[in-house]
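Lecture 7, part 2: worked example. A protein chain together with beta-D-fucopyranose.
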Amino acid sequence: MTDIRFDKDFIWGAATSSYQVEGAAHLDNGGLSVWDMFCRQPGKIANDDSGERACEHYQRYIQDVDLMSRIGICAYRFSISWPRILPDGRGRINQRGIDFYSRLVDELLAKDIEPWVTLFHWDYPYELYSQGGWLNRDSADWFADYTALVVDRLSDRVSQWMTLNEPQCFINLGHLDGIHAPGLNMGMAEVILAGHNALRAHGKAVEVIRNTARLPASISAAQANIVSIPVTGSAADIEAARRHMFAINEDRLFSNSWFSDPMILGSYPADGVERFAALMPEKFEQDLDAIRQPLDYFATNIYSGVHVRAVGEGDEVVDKSELPVTAMGWPITPDALYWGPKLLHERYDLPIVITENGMAHDDEVNNGKVYDRERIDYLYRYLSEYGRAIAEGVPGKGYFLWSLMDNFEWAEGYDKRFGIIHVDYETQKRTLKYSAHWYRRVIANHRLAEKEEPGQSSADDTAPHKA
Ligand code: FCB
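Predicted complex, written out as C-alpha cells:
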C-alpha cells in the first residue's frame, strides 16, 4: 500500500476547540463555562490543570493561522465558545467575543483556509447550567438563539457548520460518569433526557442555519464513533461487525446509533428504546420530526475500533489487549478508518468527512525539533485505510487531523500531546513537529508520502506551500 492518492478537491484540514486552545478565560468580558468551573475542583483534572491559559490562541491566532498556511491546510475546524459571546448563555451580547471569531474568520479567508465552525464543543454556559442545562426543555431554544446570533454575524463568510461535537462524550462523560464537566453522576432517565434535549437543540439549530444563513450552508454534527471491525473478511464476521456497530451494547449512550439515528433516520434505534423503555422522556416521539433535519454529510471522529467476530448465535468482541496503544491508552487500529466510513455510509447514505483523527504521544523537543515518527506512522496507516475505502467507492470528502497543536486534553490536562505543532506552555513557543512537515507533503502531492525516517527530508522546510 504505497501509492494512495486523493482527489485534488479532497479537504485536508486540522481541528481544535475553543476551551482546549483559546485560553483568555478572563479577557474581554466572556462568561464562565461548565469547564471553567469543573477545572476549579481539585483532583478533577490531571495536575489540576485548566484551560485558563491553554495555547493563548485567542491572542496568537494570527501566528497560528500563518502556521496552518505554511502546512498547506485547506480547512480549519474550530469551535465557538458560547459563553464568550453570550456571557449568560442568552440575552446580553459580548461584542468583543464576536469580534474575535470574526477576525479569525477573516484571517483564515485571507490565507485561503476555509473556516469550519462547530457551534458547541462542550464549553456550556455556566449560567444556563445553573438553570438546568440540558435537562431543561428550554435548552434547545437557548441553543437555537445562540446559533441565530452566530449565523447572523458569520454566515456572510462561513458556509461550513457543525452543531454539536460528540454528544456521546458530553452526555455520558459529563452527565453519567462525572469525569468531564459538568461532572454529574445522574440516573439514566436524566442522562437520556439531557441527550434528548441536545438532539432537539441540534434539530432547531439546523433549521436556524438553513433558514437564515447568507452563504449556502453545509451542515452536520460530529459523532464520536468507536468502529466495529470484522476480525476476518468472512461474510459472517462482516455481518457481525455491522450488527455490533449499530447495536446498543451497554447501559449508557456511548453508541454509534443513539444520536445519529434520530438526527438522520428520524427515530431512536429500536433495541435502545426497548432497553431503556421505562426511562424514555415523556412523549419523546413527538420531537422526532423536529430532530431529523437534512444533513449534508456525516461528520465522524474516529480514533479506534474494537474487533468483532461471529460466533454461533451471537457476536463476540475479540480481546486485542496485545495491540499497541497511543499515550491515551487507545488501541491503534488503522482499519477503523476503512470500516468506519464504509459502515456509516452504508447506514446513513451521506458523504463522509473525518472531522477528527490523530494520536497522543509523549513528544520531546530535541535541538529544536520534534521527530514524532510514531505519529507519522499512525497517520500514514490510518489514512491508507481511509484511502482504500474511498477507492472502493465510499464518498470520503475530507479529513481533519486532531489536532493542529498540542492543547488542553480535558481531564488529562496538558499531559497528552495530540498536535502536529508542539506548544511549549511556558513560553507559548510553537514548533512544527516532523508530522506537520509530513502532512504538508501529503497535502501538496495529494497522496500519502512513504513513511520516512528523520533526516530523509528537511524538517526546517517551512516555506509557504499550497497545492
Ligand atoms: C475527542 C474530542 C476532542 C479531543 C479528542 C482527543 O473526543 O472531541 O476535543 O479531546 O477527542
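The longest strand covers residues 298-311. The two ends are 23 Å apart (CA to CA). Keep this in mind for problem set question 3.
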